[in-house]
UniProtKB/TrEMBL annotation:
Transmembrane segments: none annotated. PANTHER family: CARBONIC ANHYDRASE. Residues 1-224 form the Alpha-carbonic anhydrase domain. InterPro entries: CA_dom, Carbonic_anhydrase_a-class. It holds the Pfam family Carb_anhydrase. This is Alpha-carbonic anhydrase domain-containing protein. GO terms for molecular function: carbonate dehydratase activity; zinc ion binding. Belongs to the alpha-carbonic anhydrase family. It comes from the Eukaryota. GO terms for cellular component: cytoplasm.
Length: 258
C-alpha cells in the first residue's frame, strides 16, 4: 500500500474538535487555484484498494483504563488508544456520496501502547486538548504537521484488512479497513489528556469504542512481508493480491506450519 503525500505538511489551519464522541481533526481542502499549482491532499492506493483514496480527517477512540480503548483487538487484547485516518474514494464527490457505496471509504487504524515517557509524535494534538475540554468546542492548531510525523517509526508493511462498516451511526457498510499490527507510543500523562475531556452529558469522555461485532462471514486478510511466514496451523484466506504471501487463486485457503 502506498501512502502518498504523508510526508508533506497538511494544509492549514488544522482544527481539533470535541464532538462529544471523540476528538476529530479537520483538514481543510485545497482551493481550485492551489490544485492547479499541483497541491494535493495526502492519498493512498494499492494493496486491497482499486482506486485512489483521499484523506478526509482523523479521530481517536480511547478507554478509561489502559487495558481498553481500541475498537479492534489484537490477539484478544484491547489497547488504550486507537487512531483512525479516514480516506474517501476519489471517484465520489464527497463523504455523503461515498457512504452510499461499499468501496466508498478506507480507514487506516493505528494502535497505541502506553510507554513510560511522553511521546513526541502526538504532541501537536495532545498539548492542545485542554482547550477543547468541553463538548462542541474547537481550536485551530497554531502549526500544521505531516501525517508521517505522527506515524514515525511505525512498520506500515504489516497489516490486516477486511471489508466492514463504520463503527459509529449510521454504521454504513462502506469501509475497507486496514489495521496495522505495530504499535505507536503514548504516555499515561498523554492518555490523561484524552480522559480529561467531557462528553455532551458533561461526563468524562471515555470508553468511546464500539463493542466487538461478529464477522458475519467476512474474511480478514493479512499482509505478509516474508516469503516463508511462520504460522502454526493458521488459515489465511487469499485473494488475487500478489502482496499476500504466495500468489493464489481467488478464494483459495492456505495453511502454514512452522
Amino acid at each position: 500500500m502506498e501512502l502518498i503525500g504523508y510526508q508533506n505538511p497538511l494544509p492549514g489551519p488544522l482544527t481539533i474538535t470535541n464532538n462529544g464522541h471523540s476528538v476529530a481533526l479537520t483538514i481543510p481542502k485545497y482551493s481550485s487555484e492551489e490544485e492547479k499549482k499541483g497541491f494535493r491532499l495526502p492519498y493512498i492506493f494499492g494493496g486491497p484498494l482499486d482506486n485512489e483514496y483521499e484523506i478526509e480527517g482523523l479521530h481517536f477512540h480511547w478507554g478509561d483504563k489502559n487495558n481498553r480503548g481500541s475498537e479492534h483487538t489484537l490477539n484478544d487484547m484491547r489497547l488504550p488508544l486507537e487512531m483512525h485516518i479516514i480516506h474517501r474514494n476519489k471517484k465520489y464527490r464527497n463523504l455523503a456520496e461515498a457512504l452510499q457505496h461499499p468501496d466508498g471509504l478506507c480507514v487506516l487504524a493505528f494502535f497505541y501502547q502506553v510507554v513510560e515517557f511522553d511521546a513526541k509524535l502526538l504532541t501537536p494534538i495532545v498539548k492542545n486538548l485542554s482547550a477543547i475540554e468541553n463538548y462542541n468546542t474547537s481550536m485551530q492548531l497554531p502549526h500544521t504537521f505531516s501525517l508521517s510525523s505522527i506515524l514515525s517509526g511505525l512498520d506500515t508493511e504489516r497489516f490486516y484488512t477486511y471489508k466492514g462498516s463504520l463503527t459509529t451511526p449510521p454504521c454504513a457498510e462502506a469501509v475497507t479497513w486496514v489495521v496495522f499490527s505495530d504499535y505507536l507510543p503514548i504516555s499515561v500523562f498523554q492518555m490523561d489528556n484524552f480522559r480529561g475531556l467531557l462528553s455532551n452529558l458533561n461526563l468524562p469522555l471515555v470508553d468511546n469504542f464500539r463493542q466487538l461485532q461478529p464477522l458475519f462471514g467476512r474474511r480478514i486478510f493479512v499482509r505478509i512481508t516474508s516469503k516463508n511466514p511462520k504460522f502454526k496451523k493458521t488459515k489465511l484466506h487469499y485473494s488475487k493480491w500478489d502482496w499476500v504471501g504466495h500468489k493464489k487463486a481467488e478464494n483459495d485457503v492456505a495453511e502454514f506450519d512452522e
